[in-house]
């Protein structure tokens, strides 16, 4: 599914077409926030399912609504950002980890040493993103290189547990999702991708950085509580404690 707010409709339609051409079987659902009627009319003809919210739910709110709607009829759930910064072929690599049973959760990573960055972010966005990733690795129980890259997949069974602990409505949802999944003991695959920055994104680097920094404290508190709960220790008694597949030749920085 694709969460969208004020999208470039042509870019989104092209991306949906690429997804359909890449996957053998897929239901493309778009969660569209506060749209113009022209966008609703156009997208209703080009996607399998279109859910429209008259208000802006935020990225996290849209993803959670989409996952909840699809979970009863699909064994595997995935989302990608509407700007298509993660190409359909790379999204397929992310989804394949869950489809083949390699991991319960799979996340795209721009910071994986095998990733290919087609077009870098601005210096400011890269600096803020790198600083945030380091802070999150230092604070959170779940360790990865890139919490925020806009493509993730999860089995429906895992989502039924993870979703109960996700509350962040905005861009911090990615961070929360990864941290909750790891704290519940689910194995996470971090997948290298091709990635291209889109400067017309609705992400504002300064306001989003403030949002993420504030959310990081709340997410740490909630995931620490999960990790300390009896249910977590019951899960850990029967599953591997390794939560991340990080390359042995890289320390994650």
Automatic annotation (TrEMBL):
InterPro entries: Nucleotide-diphossugar_trans (IPR029044). Coiled coil: none annotated. It comes from the Archaea. The keyword Chloroplast does not apply. One of its GO terms (biological process) is protein N-linked glycosylation. SUPFAM superfamilies: Nucleotide-diphospho-sugar transferases. GO terms for molecular function: transferase activity. Keywords: Transferase. PANTHER family: DOLICHYL-PHOSPHATE BETA-GLUCOSYLTRANSFERASE (PTHR10859:SF91), GLYCOSYL TRANSFERASE (PTHR10859). This is Family 2 glycosyl transferase.
């Amino acid at each position: 599914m694709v969460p969208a707010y004020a999208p470039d409709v042509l870019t989104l339609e092209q991306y949906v077409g690429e997804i359909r051409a890449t996957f053998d079987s897929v239901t493309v659902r778009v969660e569209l926030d506060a749209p113009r009627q022209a966008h609703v009319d156009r997208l209703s003809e080009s996607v399998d399912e279109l859910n429209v919210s008259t208000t802006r739910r935020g990225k996290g709110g849209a993803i959670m609504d989409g996952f909840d709607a699809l979970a009863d009829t699909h064994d595997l759930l995935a989302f990608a950002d509407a700007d298509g910064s993660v190409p359909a072929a790379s999204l397929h690599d992310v989804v394949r980890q869950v489809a083949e049973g390699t991991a319960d959760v799979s996340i795209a990573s721009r910071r994986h040493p095998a990733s290919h960055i087609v077009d870098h972010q601005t210096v400011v966005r890269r600096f803020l993103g790198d600083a945030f990733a380091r802070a999150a690795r230092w604070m959170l129980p779940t360790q990865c290189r890139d919490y925020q890259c806009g493509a993730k997949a999860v089995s429906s069974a895992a989502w039924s547990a993870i979703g109960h602990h996700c509350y962040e409505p905005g861009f911090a949802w990615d961070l929360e999702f990864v941290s909750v999944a790891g704290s519940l003991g689910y194995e996470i695959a971090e997948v290298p991708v091709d990635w291209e920055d889109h400067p017309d994104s609705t992400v504002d680097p300064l306001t989003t950085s403030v949002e993420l920094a504030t959310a990081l404290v709340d997410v740490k508190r909630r995931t620490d509580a999960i990790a300390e709960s009896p249910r977590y220790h019951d899960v850990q008694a029967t599953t591997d404690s390794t939560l991340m597949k990080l390359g042995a030749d890289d320390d994650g920085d």
